[in-house]
């Protein structure tokens, strides 16, 4: 598309670029999607082997979105922004910040996905395979600005504005400041999503030797959560079934049946189980605030030696939770069911987590252009992370519930427990990229990683609250120290460009993932959900510590790529050996069963990605890709509920075996049309593979026209987009631990229906 944007010089091509086992997505490709779309969603829809799903069209819901790349989730993939380690990209991130809150999407200049074994110079303690790298755009050399306004379905609107200072003085100082606000009503139930963001970046050249860059990012995200469902709830109650708000009488009645009986309310016999009745609470919500800042320095120390330093700080706070149907607000007396179907007392209460994170760290890299065509790089990363997770209860009223997203100030509510963790991470890498002959390179290197986490339960008031009548239950209190360490984690890459259009590459690496931590109740971590009311979590933690080993993988990729003006094609084969796979299991017999966090054995994964792009006429590009993944568990026995299960040969939960993507993009003068369709195959819901999430097709389309220069505006652009074009009713994502068997785990999210968005944008 013809562009009059002053920043067009930053965009080198209209299409996705690839090199070795890495795919790069340009700013222009990102602009094919609805303004403000989650960058991970853009990556997934343009990258073979990647799958993204969310509850909302923008992909902002950190609780309800998931990204998988060749079998690994966003919790197992490294991520950086301008060299700043972002940690895992999940909900209420305990060791970093989601890219959607770290930076406004419009200010991202480009992004890459390493689909191979990761990248040594991309710092992460959670990376098992693959790495995402985001690069922010620089301030423009000429003073100006950009504005855009989006309107859409469910009262959605998004406002974005940016001001560039241009070069201010003879030393080259320049900066930009930007602001974005996104608001939309929830597409089912009551509540809304709201995100406020602000970015600022200053660039100060240091003569011709380098530059210093300062960055600040702010994110404030508030939303009502969408209900997690079982497959039966989705099938029997429909896609629009959600929390019970605003029917408070019904919410109390269903909480009574869930907490005090094993039955279901009248009219739901044979429709919902008693467990599923307990899943229907009054409401749930979250508030996340993030501050991220960094100072980056690039400097040429000598003729062939450069230095890159990043010093960063990250502070975030989270308040999230919802109605708990299994505790009781004690101020209103006994809970009983009346003959008229109403309930006395209040058999529920609001449970809210108050979380706080503070990260301080730095990275230092040196690059040396050595003799004989060797490019040597070395670097270190250190970070200290302080994580607090406090759980509080708030009483609901006799005739009305709590206010949605109230200002839950410190010191209010009744503290259930307080958790504190302190983590120190150190990583070192060394690599040499040797150019054997022009077009042929060999990279060899290694990294060392050590992370130590100390903490756990600081205070637990379960017994005191139970004595007050809250009907509280076991909270799994544990405390201690764990260290993850890998002294030598090698990485090899061979890349050969030959005969002008051909490329062959091999990527091999060993990776290690540090232990997760979150709270004493969160299953799937070494500190959480352990033991039972008779076997303490501390006892189980102490025993686990003797045998636990961090997860690690060996990843192998072999690929071939052909690239010309009219046709591009690639095929990748990859294999992963997964060791020490950790999961929450149940130890002991049925009489002594208790939860533990243990090694559940190995996993083996094989996959193939095939992609082809044709450009038959100028401006038209058609891309098709197909992915096959066979990830199988190799263990013969896991213990759950006192019973042993053989999962050998079962496919990995939540990940599809087959995916297909097609994209058509056509530009003619100032006009652009884009059509994107994805097929996501069925996904196992359970370790025994006896229940599956159904497969689905999902299509999006967008139109845009650049009117060019009009009056004082350098260019004015109008665009229109439709998400879920054919209004598919589908299960988008799954959150939390999977069941061993059966459809009894409410951890599925329904995808958003068809939505329409229009945007007007201009630059000055």
TrEMBL record:
Pfam family, one: Plug
Membrane-spanning parts: none
Keyword terms: Cell outer membrane, Ion transport, Iron, Iron transport, Membrane, Receptor, Signal, TonB box, Transmembrane, Transmembrane beta strand, Transport
Gene3D superfamilies: TonB-dependent receptor, beta-barrel domain
Protein's UniProt keywords contain NAD: no
Superkingdom as given in the UniProt entry: Bacteria
Domain TonB-dependent receptor plug span(s) in chain numbering: 23-130
Record protein name field: TonB-dependent receptor
Source organism of the structure: Acetobacter sacchari
